Fold these 4 entries.
Entry 1:
Amino acid sequence: MDMLTKPKLWNCFLRQHGYLLHQQIGAGSFGDVFSVTKATAGTRWAVKRLVARRTIAEDEYIMAEVKAFLELAHAHIVEAEELLTTRTCACIVMELAPLGNLEMVVTSTDVDDAFVNLAFHQVTLAVDYCHARGVAHRDINPSNVLVFSSKRVKLADFGLCTPCYDLTTGQPLLCSDYLGQDCYLAPEVKKCQPFAARPADLWSLGCLLYFLYVRAHPPSDFPDLDLLTCEPCASSSPVRHKKLISTLCSVNVLDRPTTSQLIELWLN
């Protein structure tokens, strides 16, 4: 915890590992993010600092994120460069997104339809990759999608990710922790009912498409809100977008498509 409360110790820790600290660029309940330069190469990186209450080995959320960054490799998942650890702190050195996150870009700039369509497709590909490997993200929202250019986004922040099935028995696992950004949570999560994580990810993808379509977060009573009353900021295929949002955000879990089905729906 000392590195959390004593900036000089944090700066010293990074220097010992060859990184020069610039500034904090993000903060959340699961960790803080800083921009750094690798001294020997002059390259810029981001460092996510995760501090455990006891030890990192005892913190399931820190271990989940570390495991994800070590094991998941995909063109649209943020790539980890290096892992730095102490007994109570894990620091993931990862790619630095020059344009920030999707929430910042969409709410502050006039993005076009091509970017909206591309961003949603690339996030869906990343989630499909995770699901195919038995991992659910569980925290899909615009702040966890990083923007590298007008043609590339990547999914980040795997602190809530979880296995979808028991590795020993092969049986599906139900989640019993109810975390994440409220307006992107599926109804079964909000009701604090044990839930299957993959369908909950699909609901969140529907909310993400809503955000890209309306340029605002879904309201708390979503999906009861009539999409026809929403003023879209994107002009391409509004009817198609509305239909897909409604399909993804079906209250009945069994009515939601899988990621592979979603990719087919999106491309057709």
Note: The mean pLDDT is 90.
Entry 2:
Amino acid sequence: MKLPFQVSGAVKEVSYTLIVSQVLLAVGYGRGYVAFLFHQLDLPGSQIILDDEQKSRIAGSIGILSPFGCILSGTLMDIFGRKLYFFVTFIPQIISWVTIALANSYDMLLYGMIIQGISLGMGFSTSTYISEIGSATYRGALFGGLAVFYSSGAMLCNILMYFIAWNLVAWIYVGLSVFGMFSTLLLLESPIWLYNKGRKEDAIRALCSLRATNIDGVKNEIGDMEKNNVGKPKASFVGTMKNVLKAWKPFLMAISLQLLMQLTGYTALFGYPILIFDRLRLPLNSSRFTLMYAIAGGIGAVCAPFLMLKLNRRTHLSSSAAVMAVCTIAVGVYEEIFYQSDDKPLSFIVPVAFYIFSFSCNGGVLLIAYTVGTELYPSEVKGVINGIFGAVYYITWSVILKVYPALLNAVHIKIIIWCYTGCCLAIILFSTFILPETKGKTLNEVQEQYFQKKKKKCGDKMHAVME
């Protein structure tokens, strides 16, 4: 027997993903805003003059309250539900952009970016919702949609800031944030969250509305939810802590991958592309390089859903990291040969290598590092754990942005480039020996494979000893 809305299932999954992905679009705005903001404020006639220390504080200020936003996201998401949570996420975003748009001093810019950090932190749990509404067939491609919006936000920011004054761009973001907030009213509540809250009938109705598949398929997913909750601690503080502690292994794995990803140079190039390009002393326009770098990342993100749909996770991660490694090697070799030379032949090699680096990172490494834990965390505490993961992510990001200018002054740029290469190679090893394969598996199958494999092995060994 078929459900009457069979045709619209995939369309609904995509539609809900597009709505919540506006949160990631705003995260891209915030992370891409700083680079061109500094460039515009350095131009003659600027009403706000910043020194290097003030720029460093603003660049790192987003990370001050981002961890708080991440922790808040997990708590609010698990208590009040996914739909209400995403509506609330846009409130600090709107306040932040209004503050920045009205800024006439360093202090107002700093406060605006600090508030922006709350919104960025809260947006980190977007993948939690996607993992819960996405079917096994399309979940990877839907994750890829997150990369499209995140990178598109950064690309749009760079394009706007290239042509429009920074305060006018902030007003544009106010309007986009208001639109995004009210569009979340169209979301469907997560069936998994409804089931974990004891609202089984609501969960079944939501799943039927979402899947547009045969009734047996819906029954199987409900059966998976029941199976996944057997023997789990009750929804108390103690039970929640037990489930959180149970997830230490996927949490540690996700943290390790995101740290390697940030140390490939992705975070530094996002925050200081003009500074890095100027330090390489190439006879090319640094502002144009920054714009093209963002566009290359946006193109890579557009390709991400198709790559997630066609490739398994390990192949996707290792191949994109390998391309990034080749790019950093090309830059490193070029700088080793021509750094001291006043005449820089074939100087296009460096920006082209960085463009390919941006394309590959946004098309693979960034996306998988962002979403891998979401598929593995237990559903009862997925929001909380993903919030903690996001907090660690933004702390790392903030530290990197804070210390990077000083690092550039203390360490030769060539050494930094070779360190990027080492981290790219480490990601290849990570994908080969550590990353679990989740493509094409339901969340329940992933849970069984990841958490029960060791238990089964131990049981087999014990059985053999007893015999």
Note: The CA atoms of residues 194 and 227 lie 16 Å apart.
Entry 3:
Amino acid sequence: MTALQDGTKAKTDPSRYVDSTRIPYIVLPGGGSAGAKLGDFAVVFNGKNGRIVNGIYADVGPSNKIGEGSIALAEALGIPSSPRTGGVSSGVMYVVFPGSGNGKPRPLCEINTEAEKHFNNWGGMARLNACFSPS
């Protein structure tokens, strides 16, 4: 179950929650996420292989841990996707767009369209590459 939910569906209905196997989503720590709210859009970059994936902020994690994502996100980034043994320890960057969402789950086509629009307005790959470059 994810913190981002479709409140029109019963709590016992699995489709109320964001599907980790189909939707690329990020998890941010509880207790404050620099203005980001559930449902906001994000772009995630794997610096080790150059893959970039559009996503949505769909779950809240522990306040002392950052870097979790859905199975679909990991697979799209080329990262081991097992919830128990997957992940990587470095090289992944989130760009989150606070205020960009509506607090509701979205279909993948909307996630891709909206995240790409916000990413391009932010400065796109040129700005992202500047984040990895020494000053």
Note: The first strand starts at residue 25 and ends at 29.
Entry 4:
Amino acid sequence: MKSNMIMPNAAATTRWPHATLIIGGARSGKSRHAEALITSLPSPWRYIATAQAFDAEMRTRIEAHRAARVAGWETVEAPLDIATALIEHPERPVLVDCLTLWLSNLILGEHDLPAAMEALENALARRSACTILVANEVGLGIVPDNALARRFRDEAGLLNQRIAAGAGRVLLIAAGCALPLKQPEGGSLR
């Protein structure tokens, strides 16, 4: 199946120096690492949550994430429109958790992926504060056995490439450890 996403330009340069993309597998420590980075900055912090609680197990996961956060967070539920949530307070540190769930929501709802991606990139360009985006790295496993899963895997890989191309920093989290894939000079979050 042909992808709706546009491949990033190989010569792409950093467009959002304040943005950090954190990628990794399930239970790798991505969210914990992202929260630690954001909370090293002065509050208030904005948490843009993309998960939807369709069942009891997911509700439990969402509540556990909320309960683990320190005071000072404003949570914004944005399963589809993270662009608007990003530009509401461009001067505040923001954590988007996670792009992969957002993508899943868009695909399952049959939304316009190129338009959503463009809106996300435009919102990132309008921000002045630290922005951390969390995403799963889903392309390290076997080839899925059905067309929807293969499309999701492909779109997630393209989304991660596109955001990584524009971000000032990219970290891969594995077993709770961060491996810098792209690092700005000086290493500042700002």
Note: Residues 52 and 79 are 7 Å apart (CA to CA).
